[in-house]
Specification:
homodimer; 299 residues; UDP-N-acetylmuramoyl-L-alanine:D-glutamate ligase; four-stranded mixed sheet; 13 strands
Chain lengths: 299, 299
């Protein structure tokens, strides 16, 4: 079933405890689309500059991503730089150049307006809402956010929360948004702010989904060598929403399998820089990892 | 089937961010026996002083713990004091008075020598081994340890590891024992040191079990209000070994269910000071929590 993603495409400079890469293809929508492509053909709304490489566009097309909504604007593509501490959990932003994303006015192509499943990848909540309102009758809308927007655009974020079905966020963001230290209480607090579903990610400690009728918790896939955690959250979201779009419903069983798909997909992402690992995986390899994860978590 | 536990009985002084208790009944064997009592009638080997209260002995007897191996020695019972930081994960030891435990020479009663399942609760590894060697033909022996013994009695601990089937330890201890930061690699390293099974506990992030033929990972039960984490690890071990003793085998399916039993049991422990919560639970309440946890983790 139709899956739409609105978010960023970027060139990242990444420093890890052991390595460094410049101008790696990145961005929330990029990771989401590549990760969801094994489950559903995603439709992409985003903007890049005239410096966006043909081979990067081709990578998306080869992955069956619909790029009709990918705008090319005069100027440079968004760039971001980050450095990870040895614990892999602490990330410092080195620089953020919004470039063409600064004045991005999202336009959802007519051919995308019937999208049933929508993912609003990390971006300013006002941009996320503006894009969402162009979709005619979405059935299930999930948004991501980050501490920056909780800090500087809380009113816009609260308005967005009234218009979405699910919010996906990490432990730090959940505590910041709700003021609750306990993550179960934080998730319950999010459910009073608009969304009917909350997906709370805990990095290497897994993730849980909570709604009025479902509470499902899953450990992370046991990755023994993390190379670059950038994009893991968006890859999780890609597998999660991809599986939901593939199933075409949000039954409790689908949501549980979607959590497994998201967890398995994200585990490939962290094994390589940029899209090096996740971008090279076949559908069969992703399915095999899902089965491996099911084996690890099944009582 | 017969389950034997060797470990400490203590009076604890506990300071949490919100409360304080003096001379609460504690100790590794105490928590283990109370937690395992819903699954199997545990046999206890330990020592207390002449100050050990009749009501505390009665609590163990009421829980169907076999106290034939509980020695009363001239002097005071082991006392321990600890303080928890606001994050609940950081614990400072305020004092440790071994008292009668200092010269404890464990004696396994003849009636216990046919025990099939043995848990060596946290104690000096030389004492753990001395007790173990008195058991005739144990089928499955699991030991707990702590950073103190890794630090000051590593050779004794390594000798113990050659004589047990499973080691249960937390994330910090696993990293300290093996030098591996990644917990999967740390668990694999433990498996090269003697034990065929390693159970690695991650506190609020759950636990996993690893052996050559089983890898099972489980999130923690979602507790919304932690009152006192003391004894959670021993309670986990109690539920884990209790379920194995109840089943009478170590088939992969039993080990998985044992992890669920341990997780559910530990979740009661942290909800109250000392044995206040876990000591008051009925078998039906424990079974209900196991079912609740299964609901949360089943895909």
């Amino acid at each position: 079933m139709s899956l739409l993603c609105i978010g960023t495409l970027a060139y990242d400079t990444i420093e890890t405890p052991t390595d460094r890469r410049e101008r790696s293809l990145g961005g929330s929508a990029t990771y989401f689309c590549v990760a969801s492509a094994s489950f559903a053909k995603p439709r992409l709304v985003g903007v890049v500059g005239t410096d966006f490489a043909d081979e990067d566009r081709q990578l998306l097309i080869d992955k069956q991503v619909d790029v009709e909504g990918l705008e090319v604007a005069e100027g440079e593509t968004f760039t971001w730089g980050g450095r990870y501490e040895a614990d892999w959990n602490t990330r410092h932003t080195l620089f953020t150049n919004l470039n063409v994303f600064e004045h991005f006015d999202p336009k959802v192509p007519d051919s995308y307006k019937d999208s049933r499943f929508v993912f609003l990848a990390n971006a300013h909540p006002a941009i996320q809402l503006k894009a969402l309102l162009q979709v005619e009758k979405p059935e299930f809308v999930v948004a991501d956010t980050m501490n920056l927007w909780i800090d500087i655009a809380l009113d816009d974020l609260k308005a967005l929360l009234q218009n979405i079905d699910g919010l996906i966020l990490n432990d730090e963001e959940a505590r910041m948004l709700t003021g609750e230290a306990n993550l179960i209480l934080a998730a319950k607090a999010v459910l009073t702010m608009g969304p009917k579903y909350v997906i709370l990610k805990k990095g290497e400690h897994g993730a849980f989904l909570m709604s009025e009728n479902v509470h499902f918790s899953l450990p992370a896939f046991p990755v023994t060598q993390v190379v670059d955690p950038t994009g893991a959250g968006d890859s999780f979201a890609g597998g999660f929403m991809g599986e939901i779009a593939r199933a075409g419903n949000i039954e409790p069983g689908t949501l549980r399998r979607a959590m497994v798909a998201g967890t398995a997909t994200a585990s490939f992402c962290v094994q390589g820089f940029s899209l090096e690992d996740i971008g090279s995986r076949t559908d069969a390899q992703i399915e095999a990892r899902i089965q491996q994860l099911l084996e690890i978590v099944t009582v």
